């Protein structure tokens, strides 16, 4: 398994719905509330709450609150690692403050076992 902490600023939206066939993802809320949309159904995850995302389920998340949110993400088996986040950060950095190129993001996602869903 792989475990990572994810900080999500207030008002952040992750517009790229995606799925992954190689692993399950469990989200455990630490601080604030994130709204996860899984197979079209919204689920709020706050401190001490958990949601499990099965392989192949299309999902995305938003921080609709006024404060930042933090979650632990547990990926099993641990096939998603730090390289994914470094690669995404490189695409965001290359955008020089503008929106990142969605095609470049999709390429990084595919390389790491995620499938973007329009």
UniProtKB/TrEMBL annotation:
<feature type="domain" description="Cupin type-2">
    <location>
        <begin position="6"/>
        <end position="75"/>
    </location>
</feature>
<protein>
    <submittedName>
        <fullName>Cupin domain</fullName>
    </submittedName>
</protein>
<dbReference type="InterPro" id="IPR053146">
    <property type="entry name" value="QDO-like"/>
</dbReference>
<dbReference type="InterPro" id="IPR013096">
    <property type="entry name" value="Cupin_2"/>
</dbReference>
<dbReference type="InterPro" id="IPR011051">
    <property type="entry name" value="RmlC_Cupin_sf"/>
</dbReference>
<dbReference type="Pfam" id="PF07883">
    <property type="entry name" value="Cupin_2"/>
</dbReference>
<dbReference type="InterPro" id="IPR014710">
    <property type="entry name" value="RmlC-like_jellyroll"/>
</dbReference>
């Amino acid at each position: 398994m792989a475990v990572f902490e994810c900080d999500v600023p207030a008002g952040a939206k992750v517009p790229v719905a995606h799925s992954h066939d190689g692993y399950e993802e469990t989200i455990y809320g630490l601080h604030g509330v994130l709204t996860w949309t899984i197979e079209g159904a919204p689920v709020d995850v706050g401190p001490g709450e958990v949601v499990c995302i099965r392989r192949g389920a299309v999902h995305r998340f938003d921080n609709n609150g006024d404060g930042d949110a933090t979650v632990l993400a547990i990926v099993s088996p641990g096939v998603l690692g730090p390289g994914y986040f470094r690669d995404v950060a490189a695409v965001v950095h290359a955008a020089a403050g503008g929106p990142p190129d969605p095609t470049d993001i999709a390429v990084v996602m595919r390389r790491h076992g995620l499938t973007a869903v329009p």
